[in-house]
Design brief:
alpha/beta; Rossmann fold; binds NADPH dihydro-nicotinamide-adenine-dinucleotide phosphate; binds 2-hydroxyethylsulfonic acid
Length: about 260
Amino acid sequence: MNLRDTTVFITGASAGIGYACAEVCAEAGARLILAARRTERLIALSSTLRNRFGTESYVLTLDVRQRYDVASRIADLPDAWQTVDILINNAGLSRGLEPLYEGSIDDWEEMIDTNIKGLLYVTRALLPQMIERRSGTIINIASIAGREVYPKGNVYCATKSAVRSLSQAIYRDTNGYNIRVCNIDPGMVETEFSEVRFHGDTARAQAVYQGLTPLSARDVADVVLFCCTRPPHVTVHDVQIMPTAQASATLVYRQ
Ligand code: NDP
Ligand code: 8X3
């Protein structure tokens, strides 16, 4: 699977699924734009990938919630990094797990601003060049939560349902422009996700993955790479990837 001469823009590259996407794309020969808020992690990743695979990468400190920063930092990318072939919209998070009537409005705002509005801002900044070239791939990391609302998942599920709708919207609006849009819905993946969801409560986060083998970030990244490396006439538009022990959002077999 070869991504030589391809530039991949990854949001949320500092951890978890985004980090693993950077690794697999680097191994496949891509040039990478690594975007997230934690610059020092991106710099370390960039140097690791250069040493392991000789990867050329550009570190972009970016908070996807900041509408005007997203537009200006993408517009101001150096000339050599202006052309983006593949956008991986991965940055996202969950905050809290409470019934809707007890939910934190701050948590809601953060999820909506990151998972929906952030994805839209980045896509709006990069899609026009793909339209102009009549070529490009957009990978949206949504979630099983966008297909299935589980108790206390409320706003997180709604944001991922929105990502799912936007994947369809982008594919339909770009029809005729040779743009591939892939929506990927993972079940449980062991990353920093639960620690973020539970505001740093590590014990509660670890309990989520106890008694089963969850997906690894690499498992999801392998699917992303598969989607990106199909021939240009093939779009893998909609994928659900689950741990074998997880049959639905709430049906999990634990040993
Ligand atoms: P992690 O918490 O490990 O990684 C999240 C990444 O998103 C980090 O790199 C973080 O970087 C970045 N991020 C968060 N907020 C922002 C922001 N405002 N601006 C820029 N980057 C941001 O979680 P995962 O890797 O698990 O999550 C990646 C995606 O996968 C998310 O969209 C999540 O909803 C989705 N997903 C996760 C599943 C799971 O079980 N883990 C299952 C299904 C989907 P930084 O903090 O440096 O900005
Ligand atoms: C993350 C998976 O089941 O915690 O999107 O919502 S889940």
